[in-house]
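Provenance and format

Records in this collection were gathered into a single text stream. Each protein contributes a sequence line and a token line. The two records reproduced below are adjacent in the stream.
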Amino acid sequence: MATNGKTARPTSGKIRLAQNGIVIRIFVLLVRTYYLCWAKTLLFRLFFLQFPAPRHKRTMKTDISNPMKKLLLLCPLALLTVGCFDRDYDLSDLDTDHIAIGDDASCFDLPLANIKVALDDIHDDKGSLRQMLAEADVWLPSALPGDTDYVDLHRVRTEDAYLDTLLDALIDEMTSDEEKLAQVADLAWSDYRIKFLGTLNLPAGVTEAQFLQTFKAQFRAGTLSSAIRTKTEESARNYLTALDVETLEYELGELDLGDALDMLVDNLDPEGTPDPVNTLSIEGEVVSSLPLTLNLSPSFDPADIRISTFLIEADATTQLPSTRIYAEDLRRLSRASNVTVRVPVDLQRYYPGTVIDQQTPVTIRLSLRKTGALNLELRSTAK
């Protein structure tokens, strides 16, 4: 048969079919590989193994000890072996640049960091979080106004009327509860002694027992009762309104993404693309066992990536807001010798009286999420 002046070979249609795609070529290679393995096993059994006599009564139909039959078996196996070197099925001829893994609906997650926040990492300029909350428990009434189980620390800092209700409840409890009065007196002696000495008309060298006795007696019904209450409210107000923690900071070291870097950033949609498909983002979650709700706003240096402020609930797991990043952001992180994560913390609510019994009460898990296909580039070797 002639086509455009050229004679078409009878096998040309089969060759073109085999070249239609990598799937057909790989399938053919797998089939041939399977038969090669089968042939190898059979040859080994033919030439090197002594077959035991059949255990069944019926005789074997094929006498494999016959040399001529061995030769007949070897012929098709040899042809099959030679056929595997047919260049029409040589995978080295394939164009392997820009192979896509997945499609537009695909999603790939890559762990980025697992930050365990130790209890001692959370502190202010005076002490640890455990010490801070222990003192807050003293300055707060045991029964909170409004029949709630938490103190709104944001309102404490911004609303005088709300704080006044807490302090009034504190004074009332000190009046009716000896244990609460003793707690405040002990705290006044250990941390606020200088401030209370003048109010109590006591000398600088006063003993602890004399200080505590005078404080309790004058508070109940003494002539200094009003002054002691005022000083107590003032000390409690100053402490509660300043209740805060310093920014958390963690060094992650070098982020060695290796070959995965190019796969993640190679085909990202540019910023501003409507309904983007190929995107990269920072995802994660925060697991907290603290009796606090917190506003967190992590950032990454040196890429200047900032996650929008989000609220984590007390004793709960909270998902981070998805934060989209771009190729240059990830390349800057990958090139850095040390990546730093800074986490400003804003205290929102506190649930008093809760014992913190974990040394690492907060875990921050961060990951990279790639949506859309991954581009995989394989360099062909020269033939």
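Adjacent record:
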Amino acid sequence: MKLNNSLKLSVANFALFWKLLLYKTIVIGIGILLFLPISKAVISAFEVGGLVDIIKQLFSAPVLQNLTQLSTLVLNVFSAIFASLAVLASTNVFALVWLMLLLFLIIPFLSKLSDVPASESVYSYMSSLNKKGFAINFVSMLGKSLQYSILKTLIELPFVALILLGVYGIATLSTISFSLAVFAPFLSFVFVVLMLSLNITIFSGWSPSVVVFNQRPCKAIKKGIKAVNRNFASTLSSFVVMLTILIGLTYLFGIYALFLVVPLMALVIAVFGQVLFFESQGMDYYISLDKIIKPRKLETADKIKKARYII
């Protein structure tokens, strides 16, 4: 039911997708500008390490050539990254440090600044059918967005590290035997989907909590996680389904699909997070002009859950 309502609300608020696409494009542009001072040193190191050729390969054709080729490609990407970073570390340490800051802190931080404004836009529609502008929300909630983005970027770093290590480990196993090489892409796909879904699920109630209760992010995170825990299994399974579809499109159509997948996922997370939060709090919400969803009140839902546990 939540997934169905979320899809309807995503369609009703699809104009937000184009605004998120524009914002993510601006973030990429800022990232490129910040990269320019070290671009010469980085590109030179990446050419020596073989990463430039790998990047050209990723952009020249769909990633999903066949199962064994995909395993080899993933392993080659990691090998080229390690070799390129080693070259960069030996030639320009500052460029290496700045590159790591850009990739893992600055760009993720800038990208997450849109989470709270997007959540506010969805909240306005669900609570009163008011389509509040994304730009207005971005400016008015900038203080909370800055706190939220800093905290979430730092908290998600372990997830990012674990995903990279996991994919590399699975790709390495593919070199042991042909049978492992065949199953490695499937295993890496499942691993990435599960880890991303787990990460998104845990924090999916965070920005809605900031918006709905007008709380500071450091305080809202507790209420957001509590809201998710009321429906953790169903929320996780819903994100697994959505991510499987979106990442599957990236596998099929290549890395270019990410330019559409990333803002689309941001819209879906904003909508589903608000639906999850409204229902966990027993709050009524609109999905269209003539349809209002009335979830069970919070106390009633908790009593039913406790009764099932006792039985």
